[in-house]
Amino acid sequence: MDVRFESLDLPLYSPGNYILIAGPCSAETEDQVLKTAKELHEGGVKIFRASLWKPRTRPGCFEGVGAMGLPWLNRVKEEYGMLTATEVANGLHVAESIEAGIDILWIGARTTSNPFLVEDIAHTIAKYDCQPVVLVKNPINPDIDLWAGSIERLSSAGVKRIGAIHRGFSTYADSLYRNPPHWQIPIELMRRYPTLPMLGDPSHITGKRALVPEVCRQSLDMHYAGLIVESHCNPDDAWSDAAQQMTPEELLKVTSKLKLSRLAT
Ligand code: PEP
Ligand code: MN
Predict the structure, then answer these.
(1) What is the ipTM of this complex?
(2) Which pLDDT score is estimated for 2?
(3) CA-proximal residue: ligand 1, atom 4 (nearest)
(4) C-alpha 54 chain-centroid distance
(5) Which atom of ligand 1 lies closest to the CA of 108?
(6) What does the record give as EC number (predicted)?
(7) Is residue 186 assigned to a domain?
(8) Would you say the CB of residue 51 lies under 6 angstroms from ligand 1?
(9) Is the minimum distance from the CB of 49 to ligand 1 under 6 angstroms?
(10) Threshold 0.95, pTM exceeds
(11) Which of 21, 25, 53 for a ligand 1 pocket mutation test, highest count of atoms within 8 Å of Cβ?
(12) Structural domain count, the chain
């Protein structure tokens, strides 16, 4: 299918000149959001991520603060001038996020696997004149067509600024990584769609903060347009994905040494 990708038109992180989205796995409290955002902003990060709606594997885990966190993300915009990004899993999340002024929406790995939800998200976004950027994570299973299909559904519905996020693929086997990267799959997607901006998500690929720096570097070496990385002001006490989150200081030590390998974003 012929898909045209418009430039994401996102601010680049300097000195490396790549897209860098950073912030906690989940928005937990207003203080945690603002403290983490302040430290990232002071280190030059221009785009802040935090999930409000969390699709957890087992019931009984923290499932996110929901729409209550939207004003917290707005404070991040107002106080630090950062763009904001959050995960959406249905049309209602999309409408609430767009109406609150969120700049970037991403579709999580579990949602990319569901064509009905992707259609709901796509058609809801397309109703708005001022559209957010939409980033599509790979599905949890290693199925390139499901990933490409979600991108095609968004494009056919009229969504303009689309990118992809490589977060690795789940496995039942013992593995160094939480979600082994299977680099050949995102590479094949970029071959099919040479102008598709691809971001690496080393936090969800590795599941361990010690491995995050190496996968950040590999992603940029693979000519990705940038990174989305989890960072929390107090990672060991995080309410989700504690083992893979880094403090802003730890993250910035890594990101400030990396450079973009590709020219177009
Ligand atoms: C996340 O970004 O925190 C998340 C839940 O990601 P994924 O959909 O990749 O599991
Ligand atoms: Mn997470």
Answers:
(1) 0.97
(2) 81
(3) 108
(4) 13
(5) 8
(6) 5.4.99.5
(7) yes
(8) yes
(9) no
(10) yes
(11) 25
(12) 1
